Amino acid sequence: MNTQKEKEMDGITPAKTILVVDDEQDILTYLSTLLDDHGYTVRTASNAKEAWEKILSCAPDLLTLDIMMPKQSGIAFYRNMKLDARTQTIPVIFISAFSMAQNFTGFRFRKLVPDEEVPEPEGFLEKPIVIPTLLALIRNVIG
Prior knowledge:
The protein has six helices and five strands. It is of the alpha/beta class and 143 residues long. Helix 2 (25-37) links the parallel strand 1 (17-21) and strand 2 (41-45).
C-alpha cells in the first residue's frame, strides 16, 4: 500500500482528513469506518481536550462534532475553535442526538453563541445519521 507521501509523488491527490469528535465509542467506530470506506483519512477524539490536541497536530480538513459531551460541550468547543486564528477556518458539521436541524440555525444559534464573529457551522445532522445525507454534506463542504 502506498504511503501518503508516495501517493503525492505519484500525482495521486491525498485523502481529505476528517476529525470525528464524539464521546460515544460506538459512534466513533461507526463514523470512522464509514468515512474510511469512502476514501477519507479519519482521526477520532472522544472529548474536547483530545480534539484540540488532534486539530493542532493533524490540521484536519473537516470536523464532525457532537454537541453533548462531558466536561466541555461541542458548542463551547466550537466557539473556542472559531475564535482561535489557528483553527477558525476548519469547517464543522455538528452531528448530535439533539434535534437541531430545525431548532439550531439563525436566531437560535445566536442565542447559544452570541459572538457575531463566530459563524454558523457548515451543517447540522441528527442521529441516527442518514449516510447519503452525511456524505453529500461532506462532499459539498470539502469536496
